[in-house]
Design brief:
Blueprint: H1 2-9, H2 16-29, H3 36-48, H4 60-76, H5 81-92, H6 109-117, E1 121-124, E2 131-142, E3 148-154, E4 163-166, H7 167-170, E5 171-173, E6 191-197, E7 202-213, E8 225-230, E9 236-237
Antiparallel strand pairs: 1-2, 1-5, 2-3, 3-4, 6-7, 7-8, 8-9
Length: 238
């Protein structure tokens, strides 16, 4: 309990603009906003916003805690005058999701490089079904079907390659490469991010492990053979 208390005490306070965005998001998504995946995306977007520059990054747990408190308050149906005032204020505001500074900004190069080196997410491109590291989340929207989408800037690419990506289907924490000595962790039926060579480029795509032939080997190089099927085109390769 002491660790939890000390962690929450170190969280940066939300600005008025951030609270306004949290209010708007909760009104749109309700309990769906409590998911860890969504809170991670939203916390990253708020932390990368130009208005948040120079302040500590916002932990996803802080965002989730805010939504939990909001949900508890809604269930108790306590209609205090302060809450009514807040709701009226939010209804009048339709500001867009916080964005990072544009490419032409005078943001110090060192800060930009630090952000890219701290990529924590990967997103799936609809152009080639491959997964790429996320440099930043630029915006978000809710579709008519109620699905949440985010505007993604891929690491190593300029704004011409930005895409809208479905959060549920196309955004996740970065995949962790396995060392040759860790091949025993992979089993038949597992979903893996697998290297795929194409005519124009080499990419990483989702694939399912169909068969494994294990061989004894050292820790420097894996000699096991994996038969996989790529999920986007059903091709099978060894």
């Amino acid at each position: 309990m002491e660790d939890l208390k000390s962690a929450t005490d170190s969280w940066p306070e939300f600005t008025l603009a951030e609270i306004r965005e949290l209010e708007r998001t909760y009104k749109e998504l309700g309990e769906a906003s409590l998911s860890k995946e969504f809170c991670q995306v939203l916390a990253t977007s708020l932390s990368f916003a130009a208005s948040h520059a120079g302040r500590p990054a916002i932990p996803w747990q802080q965002v989730q805690s805010w939504f939990l408190d909001k949900l508890k308050g809604s269930r108790t149906k306590v209609q205090s005058s302060s809450s009514k005032t807040c709701e009226s204020f939010v209804n009048l505001s339709r500001e867009s999701f916080p964005t990072v500074e544009p490419e032409t900004s005078q943001k110090p190069k060192g800060n930009r490089i630090a952000e890219l080196n701290e990529c924590q997410f990967e997103a799936k491109s609809s152009k080639d079904s491959a997964w790429y590291d996320v440099a930043s989340f630029l915006n978000h929207r809710v579709t008519y079907a109620g699905e949440l989408e985010v505007r993604v800037r891929f690491a190593g690419f300029d704004n011409a390659e930005d895409e809208w990506v479905n959060v549920k289907e196309g955004v996740r924490e970065r995949s962790i490469p396995l060392e040759p000595s860790e091949c025993h962790k992979v089993n038949v039926g597992d979903l893996v991010l697998c290297y795929q060579e194409r005519e124009d480029q080499a990419v990483y795509c989702d694939a399912y492990v169909l068969e494994i032939k294990r061989w004894l080997h050292d820790t420097e190089q894996c000699r096991c053979i994996f038969l996989v099927r790529y999920s986007h085109d059903d091709t099978e390769v060894i």
